[in-house]
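pasting for ref
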Amino acid sequence: MAAAIGFSTSISVQFIPTKGTSNLSISNIPLRQSNTVQPLKPTRRKPYNLFVVPPSSPTSDTSSLSPAARTIMEFYSSINQKNLTKLEALVANDCCFRDYFFPKPFQGKKEVMHFLEQLTTCMGDHRNMRFNVELVCEGNDYTVAFNWHLDWKKIEVPFTRGSSCFSLSVNEDKLLIKKAQVFIESPIKLGVVALAIFKSVTSIFDAFPAATEWFLKSPHTMFRVLIKAYSIGIHPVISPFLAWYIKLLNLTACILTTTLNILHYIAKIFHK
């Protein structure tokens, strides 16, 4: 037996625009008795632009890039040249620079510049170690992303690939870096082990949802508790052992040095 089902109402679907996209209007999709659906009118938005930058970057021609991308190219060029004055001119006063190798972001121009100064110092001779930009991805609203790696005398250094996402702001007709997020390649390649760990963590989360929710909302609190527990319960026990072990290593090093000096002296006598 066949039954006929009719729809006397319509369903309204709301599209909520996300950040970085153009505004989308609210559209109604009526479902009539004929079960026909009126097609949605396509909306247009500004596409993302992709540019593959040649290996000679960031000193290559950047005329085809947007002002935001050229600003970030100048940022990496200034790091390569160890030009802190130029770097400071590119950083906004309220800049937030988050490098995920560090537990906390660098807030404000002072902290960011201190970090960049340390970075340029660690890179050594500016003629050897340099950032090499591979891919530039430009977005809307002065956002841009870069893929890069480090070169030493034009030879790629292993495990130095990374991606950086930047948001810029306009200050007196000049683009400044307001926010940066840096993701660096991990030297440890866990492979399928990472999936196994991920599965175990997910199982623990599902088994203890209340504790998981508390932890995810305040992870720093947990780390502070662990550090405090270490300083109270573990550090007093381990500290004397470590001090004794360091003294033993120093004594061993002194004995080996003395032995080598004696052997060297004996070898010189027999050589004569």
